[in-house]
Amino acid sequence: MENIVQIAETFSELQGEICRQIENADGKEKFSSDKWEKEIGNGLTRVIQKGNVIEKGAVNFSFVRGKFSDRMENILGEKANNYAATGISSILHSGNPWVPTIHLNVRYFALDNKVSWFGGGIDLTPSIIVPEEAAWFHRNIKDICDRFHPGFYPDFKKWADDYYFLPHRNETRGIGGIFFDRLKPCEKYEFETLMGFVVDQAKAYPLIYAELMKNNTKPYTEKEKRWQALRRGRYVEFNLVNDRGTKFGLESNGNTESILVSLPATAAWEYDFKAEPGSFEEKTMQLLKKEIDWIGFQAK
Amino acid sequence: MENIVQIAETFSELQGEICRQIENADGKEKFSSDKWEKEIGNGLTRVIQKGNVIEKGAVNFSFVRGKFSDRMENILGEKANNYAATGISSILHSGNPWVPTIHLNVRYFALDNKVSWFGGGIDLTPSIIVPEEAAWFHRNIKDICDRFHPGFYPDFKKWADDYYFLPHRNETRGIGGIFFDRLKPCEKYEFETLMGFVVDQAKAYPLIYAELMKNNTKPYTEKEKRWQALRRGRYVEFNLVNDRGTKFGLESNGNTESILVSLPATAAWEYDFKAEPGSFEEKTMQLLKKEIDWIGFQAK
Fold first, then answer.
1. What ipTM is given for this predicted complex?
2. pLDDT tens digit string along B272-284?
3. Do residue A47 and residue B271 have CB atoms under 8 angstroms apart?
4. Which residues span the domain enclosing B132?
5. Of B127, B124, B133, B130, which is closest to residue B102 (Cα–Cα)?
6. Å from A266 to nearest chain B CA?
7. What's the rounded Cα separation, in Å, for the pair B262 and B209?
C-alpha cells in the first residue's frame, strides 16, 4: 500500500492539469476549489458552472483509507484488514446540445494484503448522436488502449456497453467508451503498464473534450435544446438508479454535494415522449444500443 | 380475495372522480387515458400536462395479480400461493412555485390465505413552505383520520415523517402528511373501517388540492421559480433513490413510463447551493424536518 501515496499525488496533479486545460478551452469560467477532510480521508472538489461552453462540470479528487469491512469483503471477495483508495472522477455537461457530456474516472484501490487494482474509464453521452463524431471518439479511446494491451479496447468497450445501460429504458446512456474494474497487476500486465494506462486516459480526457467543445459554435434550435433536457433526464435516472458508485457513495454517508455534482444543471421529463419517424431524436434512439462497432463505422 | 374485484371497481371510479375534479379546478387541460394490459394485470394511466395550474400530473389505477414469489414472502413475512393488488397512485406538480406538489396513494393487497391489508396516504411538498397552509393541510388530514380511529393521525403522521425523508440530504421531502402500510382488518378496526378510511382520502384529495390550486393567482419571481426547480431536484432524488414503490416497480420490470410519470416536468441541481440567512429559502429549509407539530402550530 506504500506506493498509493505517490499515486494519489500523481492523480492530484492530473486533476489540476485537467482543470487548467478545460478552463482554457472554455475561455470564461474557472473551477472553484473545495477541500474536504473527514475521518475517512480527504479530497478536492473542483466545480465549474455557467461557463462559455460548460454549463456545469466537476473534476473531483479523493484519497481515502479505512477498515476493510465485512460488507466490502463480501462484495469484493477479498480478505484484508485495511484498504486505501484514490481516484479522479469527472463529468462535464455543456449548454449547447451539440456538445456531448463526457465522463472520466480513474481509481486505484489497495489492500494491506498486497492485493491492489485499477478501475475507471472514459465514456461519452451526446444528446444528439453524430456517428462520425462517435467513431472519432472511439478511435481515440482505442488508440490509448492499444498502446498498453491489444485486448483492452474490445474487452473494456463491451464492459462500458453493459455498465452504462438503463434496463428500465432498454437504452444505453450514450455511445459508451471503456469501463474496467479490478484490473490487477499480473503476469499479463505489470503495475507500470496499468498506471501508464490510467494516466494516459486522464491526460487524453481534456484534449478529447477540447475538440468536442469546438461544437459550441454550432447554432441550435428549441427542439434540440428540449431533447437535450429529456436526455439529461435519462442521465439523472442512470446516476441515481443504476450507477454503483453513486449508490455506494450515498449509502456510505459520503459527501453528498460532491457525489451529486455529477447531475446536470437542469433536466426534464415528459410522459411517453415518442420521437417522430425520421427525426434526429429517432436517429439518436436507434444508436443508444449495445454492441455498435464504432471503429468499423463507415460514413455513408 | 373475492372482494378485491369490487374494491378495484371502487378505486377505478374514484380515479375518474379525482380526474374530473382536478380538470375542473385546472380549467384548461384534460387528462389523457392510456389503458395498459400485461400478463400481470391491467391499469389506466391518466396524465395531464401543461395545464393552467398543473404543469405535469398523473392519476394511475392498476389491478394486478400473480404468484406470491419467494422474494415477496421474505419481504412481507407471509406465506401464500397467489396475491392480488389494486390501487390508485397520483402526483400533481404545479407550474407556480406557490402551489405545492401533492401525492396520494391508496392500495389494497390480498393473499389467497385470507390475509389482506391496506396501505397509502397523502402528503404535501411545497417549494416554499407557508406555515399556515401546512397547518391547514395537516388539520384536513387529521379530520379524515379522526373519523376512523384516534390513533391513525399521530401514528401515520410519524410514519410519513420517517418515510418521506432523504437521509443523504438530512431533509424531509416536504411537510409530510400520513403514510401507512400493512394495515390489516382486525379486532381494532374492521375491513369496512379501513375501506372507508382510504376511500375518504381519495375523495378528499382533489378537494384539498383544488383549494391549494387557488394560489395559482399569486405572482412569483425568478428567484422563487429557480428555488422550485432545485426543490424538484430533491423530489427526483427521493423518487429515484429512496422511494420503495418506484424501486420495486423498476426492478420488477413494470411499466416505466407509468412509474416515472411521477417525475416533474423539469428539475435543477446547483452545486452547494446555500440559502441566504433570513431568506424564504432558508425558512423553508428549517421546516424540512421530522416531528413538527403542525396541528399545534400557532400563527405568530
1. 0.94
2. 999 999 999 999 9
3. yes
4. 4-286
5. B124
6. 4
7. 16
